[in-house]
Queue: 2 jobs
Job 1
Amino acid sequence: MKLNIAVLPGDGIGPEIIEVALNATKAICEKFGHELHYEYGLCGATAIDKVGNPYPNETHELCMRSDAVLFGAVGDPKFDNDPKAKVRPEQGLLAMRKKLGLYANIRPVTTFETLIHKSPLRADLVKGADFMCIRELTGGLYFGRPQGRSEDGNTAYDTCVYNREEITRIVTLAFEYAMKRRKKLTIVDKANVLATSRLWREVSKEIEPNYPEVETEYMFVDNVAMRIIQWPTSFDVIVTENMFGDILTDEASVITGSMGLLPSASIGTHTSVFEPIHGSWPQAAGQNIANPLATILSAAMMFEYAFDLKQEGALLRKAVDASMDANVRTGDIQVEGEKSYSTSEVGDWIVDFVKKA
Ligand code: IPM
Ligand code: MN
């Protein structure tokens, strides 16, 4: 098979972890006889510095003609600390999501037996947690207009907007995923306060009868935030709007022991994007210490979701598991007393494992 991918390293640790994931992708392609073509594109702060735009047209065209996008991370403190900056790296990510029509962000939360000791939760609570967050990605507060400031600068506003069509497509997708999993769906909203949430609930209740096998529950977001730490094993598939999903998935990611392990897929109407859920960790940039596993697992999702290559994805996952079992781990997930490995050492170990498999 021919795989055409766009590679967008972005900022901070992005280039290092992407290099490792790309090497792993190459190794898999060699192993299974696939022809890999890839092309780099600019995005984020790096793109602002070079061409003044965090998601340049050239990058967009590259994404549009590719079969999948492998994405690192964007963000740079020089923008975070400057509330008056006219362009920001994050705008590039949002523009990419909107222009590629990436309305669904899929973030699987799985626990690894060998990492449970790193979880902030008691092992007996978190053991066996395995759920999937489906976050709406192109609507809500992130994109609603008007957004801005009053003339005197003393008032600011964002607008949360959702229409029936946007809700229908994401909730239907969530029911479909639930059908493929343990057939339980939690629909998260704040219908006791927000009008958009009431529409979510209304539309979801119309879709629910089409999936009689799925056990469906409706929960308020504050309650879900609590339940993720009290009883994480009670979830199978969670679906929610953009902002709630942003917050809940960060919370969910740390209960597994490290944020450095969670991949994501963003899918929609054009090319899908695969990226780790952690950020650009600018403080660690260039130090070769970042955990590359979330990005490698994102590449595994790419094989499975974008190319329907299940065995390829499975081998990458197996390599990741094996690296942890062998204690070839970066500092964030290393067990006490063991030496920490660098980003590239972990990457090389995984490439080697794939070659020998
Ligand atoms: C994420 C990130 C982004 C978001 C930022 C970088 C704009 O936190 O992908 O979760 O808020 O969506
Ligand atoms: Mn986030």
Note: Residues 246, 250 surround manganese (II) ion (ligand 2) (CB under 6 Å).
Job 2
Amino acid sequence: MYAVSFADKPVIRSSRLGFVLSADSTFYKGFVLRGIETRSFDSSWKPVWGEVAVIRDHYRELTVHLQKSSGAAGSAAGLRLDLVFRVFEDGVGFRYVFPKQPGLNYFIVGDELTEFRLAGDHKTFWIPGDYDTNEYPYTTSALSAVDNRALVASSTAIAVRVAPDAQAVQTPLMMKTADSLYLNIHEAALVGYPAMQLHVDGRALSLTAALVPDAVGNKAYLHAPFATPWRTVIVSDKAADILTSKLILNLNEPSKVANTDWIRPMKFVGVWWEMQTGKGTWNYSDFADSVGVDGRPVPNGRHSANTANVKRYIDFAAANQIGGVLVEGWNVGWEDWFGNWKENVFDFVTPYPDFDVRELTDYAASKGVSLIMHNETSGSATNYERQMDTAFRYMQRWGYTSVKTGYVGKIIPRGEHHDGQWMVEHYVRVAEKAASYHVMLDAHEPVRPTGLQRTYPNWLACEAARGNEYNAFSDGNAPEHETILPFTRLIGGPMDYTPGIFKLRGYSSVPGRQVHTTLCKQLALYVTLYSPLQMAADLPENYAAHRDAFQFIRDVPVDWEDTKILAAEPGDYLTIARKQKGAENWFIGGITDESPRDLRVSLGFLKKGRTYAAIVYRDGAGADWKTNPEAYTIERLTVDSKSVLSVKLAPGGGVAVSLMGIAAN
Ligand code: NOJ
Ligand code: CA
């Protein structure tokens, strides 16, 4: 058993630890204590990229050596298990270590029994514990009210939903207690093991680890020695501390990529929103299995990834200091890519006839822009594993330095899940393979991140949550959505949310579709939703209509020296200021949910004695996400560390501010 308290208040009551193993179905009792070790650690490290330039890793560690007593049944007698606890100022991490030992060499985990018994019926921000997706909208409820059935049933815009336990939720799980403690439960360093979801017992107010099973119902196949991922509990009486916690990163291994000079955070655009909104298509033809009289596929005339159109995006990127252009739908296979559980869909090296890779590579290079590769696997991980070296050699041949992968659909190996052990190992293999070819990675539909970006800094971002794209193909994301994400999904790592939509209504042929934010809130997301990879997701023509507001997207960086959380409450509002790495410039993003708010931002974090040229992008008079989302006002001011900004946020609104240091003379 273990327990966690914060300032003498119980946070986790005495809770069970242990396993059901193939080698011992009671690997949770009958242990004797063989010894303990303690140590302290305090050191700092520099991430290759991040929200801050330097991270302090400071903890006390306790290792507990356990052994099954000699009276234990059968062959279990004498088996050993170690528990390692690390206590930080902002929380706790613990993991199980199976030492190398006779009698426990290769073994199967039937269940992990880790419990988190809570001290109350906390306010909880949750999505269903689904084996295949994290793309649900959040529900805020009392813990005891968790029941995911209605949400799972109604979420038909999500391609694959497998949520057999009505009381299961995903992590990072964010909670707030009645006396205003903020708790976040997640895991760190998920490698070689399935994702941990949590089963809620609403009566006992306890959470139990629910590992995502494999095709035959087992949880994990292990070979000792093996250390499980860390189970993490971040605790504070300030919401801001949850956001600044570096506990998850600190519990991950240092970079395995020795030379990281080639890894560069960047902004990108792409022929993407065209397809998401139905203006264009990924597929070249509308027929999967027939050709024209000339024996060739019949073009549908709406294929976005054509050479001329991609050049238009390259020109736009070059003109606006945007580093990358993502091209989806460039390779053969999109006619029947999805929904057939088909194993060999794409080969990742054969372009459609209207996509001239040589011409585009040369053109992009001449403009100083990188093309971003797209490898949609449609869930067929086996096919991708077979093609991966070929795919990365193709990227190398044509100068692609980053790839966006995707896993839409049911997984192959058939019966496996996106969040099971097999796929967890697959995502890491892809990150390692990408690193060996000096390619940066953005994975869509993977398991949610657990801080592995420290170990694989080329793994810039993941989706693994409900992105802006849901505003294109479903009823969309509620105005509170982006105030919850930083406290939940982003605790594990950066998200490729694809912000920056300027045309917030009338972009879809489906009536009623609209983005549930104002234009200024889309700008603020570049600061509040941290990622080293940020898309400017809208179409060039929609940016051309608001060149003055687009200036913020041109200016905002994607790598930071420092971060200050100025105001935060999950589900309600969030204001963050970040300092550009290597420059005396700051950027502020402030967002609200559906409620309007008055924001006062004191600029005390600016360098004393320095003046800054500020541009404030704020919701205009009468702005409202629903009725008037595109109203904004831009104001230019000179400010210093004594200045205070007062801003009104519209319902679903936001504010973005750039503060460029004026050289002292
Ligand atoms: C879903 C991804 O989230 C989206 O970004 C992508 O365009 C489609 N899959 C097609 O790969
Ligand atoms: Ca997705």
Note: The pocket of calcium ion (ligand 2) is lined by residues 135, 444-445, 463 (CB under 6 Å).
